[in-house]
Design goal:
alpha+beta, five-stranded mixed beta sheet, two-stranded antiparallel ribbon, 16 helices, 7 strands, disordered C terminus
Amino acid sequence: MENRTISIAFIRNMVSGCGLAPRYCDELLRRAGVDPAAIDSPQARVSPTQLSQLNKWITDATGDEGMGHYLRPQKRGTFNILARYMQTANDLQQAIERNVGFYNLFDFGFRLTLLHRGENIHYRVEAEYGVVLSNWVYEQLLMVNHRFLCWLTNSPIPLSRVNLNYATPAHSGEYHYLFFSDTRFNQPHCEIIFDKKLLKLPVLRSSQELEDYLSKVPYEFLHSNTRASSYTEQIRTVIKKSLPSVPSYDVLADTLGITPQTLRRRLRQEGCDYRLIKNELIRDTAIGYLLHDNKDVKSISYLLGFSEPSAFIRSFKKWTGATPKQYREQYGAAPRQESTTSKTSLIAN
């Protein structure tokens, strides 16, 4: 079971430009356990596995790794060839240069650029003149390529900042999960920025490791463990183990062996804060209980550290737009009558 949920907006944005018939898209959504009626809900939640399953199925159906979002299709197998080309690079710099040069051979409607600016490196995605790209293209290209580079070097490759040239989306609070970085919208360019010293990181993965990795794409992109050591993930782990008690900020910092001021700074660098992480963890754990456990709402509320069920119900409705009872009935099933075909989220623990 997974321990995180994500906004359904990521699925909505992916499906919206794929070019498949709406009826077929609805069939794929149901197959992944996502209620098509919830696709436009601003608060519905899904799992990373559901998103990766849909990614694979839409790619299979369209024969396009860009899933209809690029100016021209990216034929299946293109990424595999690129990945093998990058795997034989000596270091991060050469791997990125190969990545940029390879993509720019194709008429996808965008160009990649590697820029040196003082002590920083800018990996930038820009639309070709006259081409309008969806927000999904920018976030997908930056996230996937960053995570693959992290995997190749077996390093988190911490980002100094992420710039995006579109308006702040309603689900912007979830971008810290994509990049673990300070993410800013309405910027002149779409790019990830990191310290140029990291360009010397060696490419460590073997050819056999790469073949195993490619056999698990796109699941690997969304379940990258390169940021397992991030403070965001460490805090989720500490809170999870502490429930029903929730540690104070100062106690948490002491548990992690740093000062509260340092922790606050590190979280700011990851584009997050303690309150958001705490609420996300409790929300995701609650969803897991509601969909995969027969416990009643009162018991769940106490397991999550709420003094009264009413407080849990209010918080849960604020997070998801539904009461715990409504969420279980709509996306899971009533206890002892669970169905595996109508769930909007498959999260537990």
